[in-house]
Amino acid sequence: MLRVENLVTRFHTYDGVVRALEGVSFEVREGEIFGLVGETGCGKSVTTYSTLRLLPSTGRVHSGRITLAGESLLDASESRMREVRGGEIAMIFQDPLSALNPVMRVGDQIAEAVRLHDDHYRLGSNAKWTLSVIACGLLLADETIKLVEPEAQIEHAVSDGDIVEPGSIFLKITARASTFFSIERAAIDWIQQLSGLATKVNHYVNLVKDFDVRVTDTRKGWPGIRMVQKYAVRVGGAHNHIFNLNNCILIKDNHIKLAGSITVAVETIRKRAQHTFKIEVECESMEMVEEALAANVEVIMFDNLDLEEIRQGMKIVNGQAITEASGGINEDTIVSVAETGVDIISVGDLTHSVTAIDVSLDVLDIKPTAKRTINRLRQSTDIG
Known about the structure:
The chain is of the alpha/beta class and 384 residues long. Among the domains are: 2-98, P-loop containing nucleotide triphosphate hydrolases (Rossmann fold); 213-352, Aldolase class I (TIM Barrel, Alpha-Beta Barrel), CATH 3.20.20. The chain contains 14 helices and 14 strands. The strands form four sheets. It has a six-stranded parallel sheet. Helix 5 (138-148) runs antiparallel to helix 6 (177-207) and helix 6 (177-207) packs across helix 7. The N and C termini lie far apart (76 Å). Residues 119-130 have low confidence and may be disordered.
């Protein structure tokens, strides 16, 4: 039985506290059909989001109890909640455009939910890289081939962003034999490296998919092809943070040292900056968080802070600014960081260390004219 008792949920916004739910109580027994009816905006969806702990970062359950078969869902770990969502309590979202991932086929998304909650399909952590990958780099492979032989015919079996199973074909190429030898490594390297990157990014995104948090890259990357990496990050389902310090206002530790304080740095920048730019400040202590808030910055980065410090920082910010956690985050810690309620998690590990996938180029067919040429070469050089 699902039991909700005296549920109180509030949202902390720039305009103040919104009292979304006040004392909601109900029970849903096994096999029972229960309807929650009310006008638009009365809190029906918020009740469901609260029950499944899917509230956005500005929302909080302030009091009340939510139990499933006697188990408190408000006290359950996030790993336990991932088992509950879809496994014991399912939610059909109102807006399919926001509920479905546009870079994945609908069938793949449905199958993913089955694999997550059915022991017959559940995978061990060691298998996550071997069963499927996110295709990426095909367009760059195209350009590489066309540079060598503009008349080459290229047929895509998959597109960037597709989930590709082992043994699948990426491209079918019809070209001269000399072209194959020229482009084999370069074209394949694009697909191997960028598919590996997109797959890794997608893995990170899936780890925190139950949280209202955005995963982004950082400025770390391979010199000369950073833009290509950032494209692969987007294909993998994450977001780009910044490209360089020219297209954003990010106040770092050295800027603060040169200016003398966060306050002076922000005031100096505001006098010169375009009105459309947000200001983000890297904060390494609670004192810096408080000073940045007092300076009315739009984004606060918790830079290399531990989980307890991030939680303290979130209490101080209390919805007054966008929050970002960064520094030393990996696949073992990202879920715990997401549980703090930050809006953004930037992960340098997405791009600075990538395992390439295994892709090879195989000759499937040789035209009769090419076969005759090969035979003549064999006869003239005694090959065979």
